[in-house]
Amino acid sequence: MRTASTYAGLSMEGRHKSALEVARNRLMVAVLLFFAAFVVMMIRTVELGLSTPEQTQVAARHIVVPPVTIARADILDRNGEVLATNLQSASLYANPQDIKDAHEAAMKLVSVLPDLSLADVEEKLSSGRRFVWLKRKLSPREKWQVNALGIPAFQFQAEEERVYPHGRLAAHALGFVDVDGKGLGGVERYFDDRLADRTMTDQPIKLALDTRVQYALTDELEAAMSAHQALGAAGLVMDVATGEVVAMVSLPDFDPNSVRGSAGQERFNRVTQGVYELGSTFKTFTFAAALDQGVASLEDGYDATKPLRIARFTISDDHPKSRYLTLPEIFAYSSNIGTAQMALDLGSDKQQVFLSEIGLLQPATIELPEVGSPLFPDTWRKVSTMTISYGHGIAVSPLQLASGISAMVNGGRLNAATLVDNPEAWTNGKQVISAATSRKIRQLLRLAVTKGTGGRADAVGYRVGGKTGTAEKAVAGGYDTRALISSFVGIYPMDDPRYVVFALLDEPRGTKETFGFRAGGWVAAPVVKNVILRTAPLLGVAPKREDDGLYQNVAMMIEK
Fold first, then answer.
1. Residue 92 pairs with which residues in a beta bridge?
2. 106 within 8 A of 128, measured Cβ to Cβ
3. What are the beta bridge partners of residue 247?
4. Distances (CA, A) of 45 to 53, 56, 153, 156, 186
5. Quick one: pLDDT at residue 547?
């Protein structure tokens, strides 16, 4: 029989067991909740571990970052030297809503990135927006410095930066890109779609340029430009058989790695975009047309006793002989009087057709967007025929001149100029003069160096031929006699032409070494000579003993 005390003890025990059961259930719930939280944290940890820091930070703030720049194919020179490539970079952005003191944050940022404007940065950081770019394409050092500020609101987006390892070298040919990697000039713009094609970023574009030749040409033009205090300079080296541009220089130039701040004049390509009256270099074309069409022969000549007068114009010679001159003498002594008379015999119509056939009346064809249009008279009068025969009254680009000269010496074939090293794109060219006429032109060009005005271009061992060009700059109402465009076009070796080398100086000044003269034969011809001596071995052209047989026949027609 149970007593009341017994029942009281049982009641106490029941309540104790019930309390333990409740506690156990609560503990199980707590354990399950803890386990569930642990599983969630573990999953999130794995997720965060697989994501990039930038993605994690962006996701946490729900910031939509603009897409990164996609890869871009490399650009190489003909020997595989890298001219343009992409490198990993980082761009700085911020969420202004996470900035407590915009002024203080801006001050700190500008202290490590002094090229930024304090006012601009502060305005962006106080804008209240969720995303602002602060600087694109930081260097590794700049990124480290920003990180060292310890401001969580400053974050980085991985991008790719276009880099030009050789700096200014070949800048006008290569061009440049904008901050988003889009081509804005040169080859970068011309081949923009191809270079940015995701399926072809591992296939570089190979150019015909030779970095070694490019450097030598740049070096010589810079030296001449400095020595003669010229406003600018231009030059190129072209393969006469293929039209490949092996080197192209325009000065002043710019650094495609840092285009901001460069002037428009520095980005202007004088070789393809600039058009100039190139003076007596044009006599080469007048002689070629007359000889090829049977208007004159090397045995013929013209009376150069006195200047020619037509309307209000007077045509005279810079090196007057004041006598009858044979054709070889007219070319070697660069007689305007004799050349003008030959052009009259050729006729205006034939002259225009010939100049058009060799590409001098149309813009040049090359893989660049910067191409200038030639300038010539709307109405081709008699005086135009005479002055154009020796390079006055018509303006063309140096590239057009080099292409035309190449055709005059390579057997008569006109090939389109090209910057791309792609044999499949070459054509056999268009025959514009006969091989026989081409040989005569080579004789005359060699003669102009050995006996005429181009003597300072004679690189011994390389049988150089060429023609000087000196023209006054056209200004409103006439010409400025104080401002010259002085040039020289050289070809070597003349017994088997391989390369055209052209040099131009804009408004050079005479020096003690040139006895004050500023003409092409004095200031531009030595540049061509030096470039040939420096680059011919690199291009596989060996010097050899000179053979006067090439021009012996025409040399005999020059009066001793």
1. 135, 156
2. no
3. 237
4. 13, 11, 22, 21, 48
5. 65
Pairing of strands 154-163, 132-138: unpaired
Domain that holds residue 134: 75-206
The Cα–Cα gap between 167 and 435 comes to: 42
> Who has greater pLDDT, 428 or 443?
443
User: Could you say which DSSP state residue 103 is in?
Assistant: H
Q: Across residues 481-495, what is the average pLDDT? A: 94
**Tens digit of each residue's pLDDT (9 = 90 or more) over 518-540:** 999 999 999 999 999 999 999 99
The DSSP symbol for 443 reads H
Whether the predicted pLDDT of 313 surpasses 90: no
CATH number of 182's domain = 3.90.1310.10
**3-state per-residue secondary structure call for 231-299:** CEEEEEEEECCCCEEEEEEEECCCCCCCCCCCCHHHHCCCCCCCCECCHHHHHHHHHHHHHHCCCCCCC
**Is it true that the peptide bond before 493 is cis, omega within 30 degrees of 0?**
yes
Query: 184 and 313 share a domain?
Result: no
In what helix (H) or strand (E) does residue 124 lie, and over which residues does it extend? helix 118-125
Question: Is 383 in the same domain as 439?
Answer: yes
Strand bridging mode 324-326 / 308-310: unpaired
Residues with Cβ < 8 Å from 269, sequence gap 6 or more? 172, 186, 250, 368, 370
**Closest to 488 (Cα-Cα) out of 444, 443, 458, 514:** 458
The answer to whether residue 384 is catalytic is no
**How many other CB atoms sit within 10 Å of the CB of residue 550?**
21
The residues that bridge with 428 in the sheet, in sequence order, are none
Higher pLDDT, 438 or 160: 438
Q: How far is CA 542 from CA 242, 446, 539, in A?
A: 20, 18, 9
Q: Catalytic pick from 280, 334, 397, 403? A: 280
Residues 202 and 287 in one domain: no
- Say whether pLDDT at 2 is over 60: no
Q: 222 and 199 share a domain?
A: no
Amino acid at 367: E
Q: For the chain, what is the mean pLDDT?
A: 87
Mean pLDDT, residues 426-451 taken together: 91
Tokens 């980085």, located at residue:
156
Q: What is the CA radius of gyration of the chain?
A: 37
Q: How far is CA 206 from the centre of its chain?
A: 14
